[in-house]
Amino acid sequence: MGSALNAIEFRDVSLAFGERVILDRVSFAVRQGESKIVMGGSGTGKSTILRLALGLIKPDAGRIFIDGEDITHHTEEQMMEIRRKIGMVFQEGALFDSLTVYDNVAYRLREQHVPEEQIEPVVMRMLRFVDLEDAVVKMPNELSGGMRRRVGIARALVGNPKIIFYDEPTAGLDPITARTICELALKLRDLEDVSSIFVTHRLQDIEVLAHEYVIRDDKGNLIFEEEGERLCLINTKFVMLKDGHIIFSGTDEEIRQSADPYILKFFT
Amino acid sequence: MNPLINGIIQVQELTLLTGRAVRSITRQPRYWGEMFRQMDVLGVGSLAIVLLTGTFTGMVLALNTANTLQKFGVQNVTGQLVTTSLIRELGPVLTCLMLAGRVGSGIAAELGSMLVSEQIDAMRALGTDPIKKLVVPRIVALVTMAPALTVICDFVGMLGGLLISITLLHQPSSVYLASSRNAVDINEMIGGLLKPMVFGFIIAIVGCYKGLSTTGGTVGVGRSTTQSVVLASILVIVTDFLLSKVIISLLLQPN
Ligand SMILES: Nc1ncnc2c1ncn2[C@@H]1O[C@H](COP(=O)(O)OP(=O)(O)OP(=O)(O)O)[C@@H](O)[C@H]1O
Ligand SMILES: [Mg+2]
Q: Measured in angstroms, how far is the CA atom of residue A44 from the centroid of ligand 1?
């Protein structure tokens, strides 16, 4: 059994594609309610980690736990139950290009046979959330890259998953949209107690995710605050991948003090 | 990789997919809407080419056989020869070769592009089994529509033969039709329907397998598409021989 305190846990996970070893005995854990920022150069296996955690591919060795449940040898049918808890924002969006924006976002609920009149308000709320209400009837190929990404996020959030994987959700977006996406992740982390893995390279994202938090005031308004001197409630941790290994795992303060030249490159 | 090992691996994967698909047919959830949509797209959409293929095949059959039959003075059995050839062989095989070209390639291309753009992964992540949602409806659609299209092909082929008999061979239509009717018997029909059902299954499963095993991006989709047409066509022709043997020994024994 894995610890029930961990939403996601990798234990000595190894994976190779043919001769190429992508992950070599990788271990890490994401605690309930924690956001884990996964960094690393291109091709170091960040997306692969998310695919493993979703059970889309199986590791060669090691064990993977979701909510304390060992999913390493789960069948596709058993994984369907696990995946209900997980929302995934794919790196390239992975929208269904034969479905409209509305149908893309509604997809999960339709599959769960939720009545149509209950689906509509949820879908519209999600699309409002990502500021895409005007695009409901559009097809994915009519959207810009940033819009597609936001539809992908809306689709992942439907069904209120307790675990969310973001695969470079801000790459190639303008700073304003990118900030919106990070704020969204903050809200889910601080108000909904969602656990997440957030793959990103952007320093701006890291600033927001590691230094800001959100609270609801007495009137129910959301307030974003910068981390103060004495406050230390920010629930974001870092993992740095290199050559199939985790070369760093820890907090924001620790990663900034690291002297490793590979890590320094990401922060300059 | 050694082509032999590669071939064995492909056979194994194809068998595994077939097993999973067949098991899924009997399980919930079923995607009825998707099934009917595929019947429409794959079956009804192929009507035009099947009509053309059937008519011209019937016409050329009448033309060729009448020539030979004339030598023996039995031109009056043209109808029977045309109809038997169509029901036994040409209807099922030609219809399904056309389907392999038009539909098998389409399936491989569609599933292949979905795979390389991660839509299949997204589907799985959102709680759908792609075998149930994508593979099973296509199999059901082809297993039902291929026999239906074959019947249509046989029918218009017979009419094509009739047309040629009347216009070029100057036979009275009653002779052709009476002779045609001789060719139609229940065992011939069963054989003639069994074949396209099997072929339809082959085309669907090969298209799905090739699509879902696409590697190497957009170029890979092109490759899968071509391979699915080639493999399905070869399998149709080889299976046709084996099935003919079985059908002849089981159903068509002269009594
Ligand atoms: N299906 C596959 N077959 C073979 N190799 C693969 C496959 N999927 C991924 N790889 C390889 O695994 C390595 C890790 O890929 P992955 O997509 O996880 O990288 P990443 O860290 O997400 O990179 P990026 O930042 O560019 O998105 C890459 O070198 C890639 O070539
Ligand atoms: Mg990636």
A: 7
